[in-house]
Amino acid sequence: MTDLVGRNRLWARLDQAVAAHPDLPTPIAVVDLDAFDANADDLVRRAGGKPIRVASKSLRVPALLERALAGPGFAGVLAYTLREALALHDLGVTDDVVVAYPSVDRGALAALVASPAAAGAITLMLDDVAHLDVIDSVRSSKAVQVRVALDIDAGLRLGTQHVGPKRSPLHDATDVTTLARAVAERDGFRLVGVMTYEGQVAGVPDDVPTQRARSLVVRRLKQASVAQLGVRRRAIAEALRPIADLEFFNAGGSGSVETTVADPAVTEVAAGSGLLVPGLFDHYQSFTPRPAAFFGLRVSRKPTPDLATVHGGGLIASGPVGDDRAPIPWAPPGLHLTSLEGAGEVQTPLTGHPAALLGIGDLVWFRHAKSGELFEHVNRVHLLAGEEIVEDVASYRGLGHAF
Hints:
- With 403 residues, the protein is of the alpha/beta class.
- 33% of the residues lie in helices and 23% in strands.
- Helix 8 (173-184) crosses helix 10 (212-240).
- The radius of gyration is 22 Å and the shape is globular.
- The two termini are 33 Å apart.
- The mean pLDDT is 94.
């Protein structure tokens, strides 16, 4: 879909579908279900039989989570907050949620330990005994057992250098087993899993056409990381075997599916961005991108015949500040942000040859740089199948404070 013919075809599909709903407020968030389903199939193929746990942070739309989970090869959700996990359980989206980050939300923890059903479905993440103390501080009884997993640093160590997300103080088997024994000896807790997210492999593009030298370095760092992590995972799995009967060993992400599932210690892989393929996931050797999520903005004025200014547009992605965090004008192809204004809160001027063809009220379609974050800006998401909007569903934001 990255070719010009495909992008023009997409432009026609999106405009035709939205033409039947002329009063939609902008930004108009659309998910192309044809691309979404094709991406899901490709993830399952790449996973080679190991289950995929859906990373909800990259979707943030219950209907899309349910769609992914309904397909073969997907099992369970990797949530990013405990309140989100509780809401997904209450909505009946899934009865298997792992919270990917430690929670110190005392209100949400109190709700968890007050509900045997929720506690049986949700697994909390921790990397410090202090996390156990916070959980214990909100309950007067340990009758409800809390399921926990250990978040283990999966970064690449090169001497004193650390390459990868700065997530956890747990690194080697000694660190992990010390905390695992503390969990095993503590009433009211059950150790059921571990997670090792190798973000330096899963989340970094390695085939950027304009960055050939850098991409080569990234690929070599990924190879070194996979090799080092394989040895460490094996040692950790062996060290934990006498302490706990683990239900899962989670790892990876959309950009690392093949190397992650090739590790015998790993029992499941996480993926989410690969379903929608945001701008930051365009340049990977491991898969062909099929963009599935878009937002439309209308041209609100024409400062010159060769400029088209849309209303809004400043949907900037999180992470290190840079041009790659800006939204990408996608359809019609050939439009560009201006260097002076970029993507603005109230207006975004666009240059490029299609700008001369656009009139007041016409739609321009963008891609967000990161998956999931688009839906923090809209209450409703419009699902496209073929040439038609077939459903209008709520985002997390649209469902309100529970998320």
